[in-house]
Amino acid sequence: MKQIALINHGCAKNLVDSELMLGKLIKDGYKITLDETKADIVIINTCSFIHDAEKESVKSIFDMVQAGKKIIITGCLTQKYKHELQELIPEAIAFLGTSDINKITDIIKKVTKEKKPIYAVNETPNYQYPEDIARQQITVGASSYVKIADGCDFNCGYCIIPQLRGPYKSRKIENIVNEVKELSKKGVSEVVLIAQDTTSYGKDIYGKPSLKELLIELNKIEELNWIRIMYTYPSLLTDDLLKTINSLEKVVKYIDVPLQHVSKNMLKAMNRPLIDNKALIKKIRKLVPNAAIRTTFITGYPTETEEDFNELYNFVKEMKIDRLGVFEFSKEKNTKAYNLKPQITAKVKKQRKKLLMELQQEVSKEINKKLTGKKTDCIVEALQNDGTVIARSYKDAPEVDGLVYVNTKTPVIPGDIITVKITGAFEYDLTATF
């Protein structure tokens, strides 16, 4: 039996797809190895969201080709470039698109038998979550991502995700609940709900956005401690949904709402909701007291003027968002922004990002300093050799936010929820005792 390795690139949604492929392979009797050097076949699940992500995926592909491995390329890169990628990388034994992951074992059987490359990329992706497959988790710990939907029906000017992932497709509430129950039994303490847009959840199968109903059901799972929601859409954060988040004890008071910009000119150019983002932030803080708010912004989007950027800069300065990420605009083919003029120079994009991030460091440190001496709930992530406990507060999502370094003599294990006292504050991280 052949040994198979998998290299994953990109977002948490890609990670879930990789875990589903591994689950399918194990179910069908294949052996998985974490060591690519020992693998007969290496699957590379690629990302194509921005140019830098593409470069990482391409590097893995060529590293494995040079190592003489048989490679299967899956994910967004194959969906974006289709037959062009097949011509560029003739060494690959197979190509799978974003909505073809459930075909992975059939493809391996076929390519082994026929000894010629297989191309299995659906021209129009239509993602269907393979509910019959148990994920084989790559990262096992206190938290686990749970994909509640995939695809996107919005058409933001900078984004190719709808072309790569197809239309919005939700999973049924009962299937998500069953998966979370299984994860909880395995010791997962926090589930992180993900989709291209979590607030649209259910609209395609229940006739209306149904994230509220899903949260109510997940909140009933006894073994589960925390439910975290990522990637909400600004215009879909209704009063009703925010009140639900506030009322459910297991739903952490953490609102991830990528705004991308605040200038009306930019929002219009980006094809984003023309809403008052200051009013939205104030509404969140009113309806979910003590909410940690996370957002992302894009600098250097085509036509962004100094005035537009200053409006964004002043927004960050005034609104004091808890967690903030900034991306330089990445020019992607087949998007509205690709031919939009004037394009902004790389130097200006970088400079604007730097200014925003330096400002946010000051904001973040100021927010963190106010926590000194106060108590907060944290989830235990890991234990260091020197006895320090690495934890995350409810204000921090895995991988993207800060950490809390806890000094304690009390025995704890990953997944425990502990109430710590904050003793020190830095730009992003905290120290505490327990």
Low-pLDDT regions: none
The class by helix and strand makeup works out as: alpha/beta
* CATH T-level topology of the largest domain: pyruvate-formate lyase- activating enzyme
Main sheet: which strands, in order across? Answer: 2-1-3-4-5-6
- For the record, what is the CATH homologous superfamily label of the largest domain? tm_1862 like domain
Terminal-residue CA separation: 49 Å
Q: Mean of residue pLDDT?
A: 93
Radius of gyration, in Å, reads 22 Å
E-strand count: 19
CATH class of the largest domain: Alpha Beta
Describe how the helices and strands are arranged.
Layout: E1 3-8, H1 12-27, E2 31-32, E3 41-46, H2 51-66, E4 70-75, H3 76-81, H4 83-88, E5 94-96, H5 104-114, E6 118-120, E7 143-147, E8 149-150, H6 161-165, E9 169-170, H7 173-185, E10 190-194, H8 203-206, H9 211-218, E11 226-229, H10 239-247, E12 254-256, H11 264-270, H12 277-287, E13 292-299, H13 306-319, E14 323-328, H14 346-369, E15 375-383, E16 389-393, E17 404-407, E18 417-425, E19 430-433
Parallel strand pairs: 1-2, 1-3, 3-4, 4-5, 5-6, 7-10, 10-11, 12-13, 13-14, 17-19
Antiparallel strand pairs: 8-9, 15-16, 15-18, 16-17, 18-19
How is this structure best described in words?
With 434 residues, the chain is α/β, with parallel strands linked by helices. The chain has three domains: 3-120, Rossmann fold; 143-369, tm_1862 like domain (pyruvate-formate lyase- activating enzyme, Alpha-Beta Horseshoe); 375-433, Nucleic acid-binding proteins (OB fold (Dihydrolipoamide Acetyltransferase, E2P)). 35% of the residues lie in helices and 21% in strands. The chain contains 14 helices and 19 strands. The protein has helices spanning 12-27, 51-66, 76-81, 83-88, 104-114, 161-165, 173-185, 203-206, 211-218, 239-247, 264-270, 277-287, 306-319, 346-369, and strands spanning 3-8, 31-32, 41-46, 70-75, 94-96, 118-120, 143-147, 149-150, 169-170, 190-194, 226-229, 254-256, 292-299, 323-328, 375-383, 389-393, 404-407, 417-425, 430-433. The strands form five sheets. The protein has a six-stranded parallel beta sheet, with helices on both faces. A five-stranded mixed barrel has the order 15-16-17-19-18. A three-stranded parallel beta sheet has the order 7-10-11. Helix 13 (306-319) links the parallel strand 13 (292-299) and strand 14. Helix 7 (173-185) runs parallel beside helix 9 and helix 9 (211-218) packs parallel to helix 10 (239-247). The radius of gyration is 22 Å and the shape is globular.
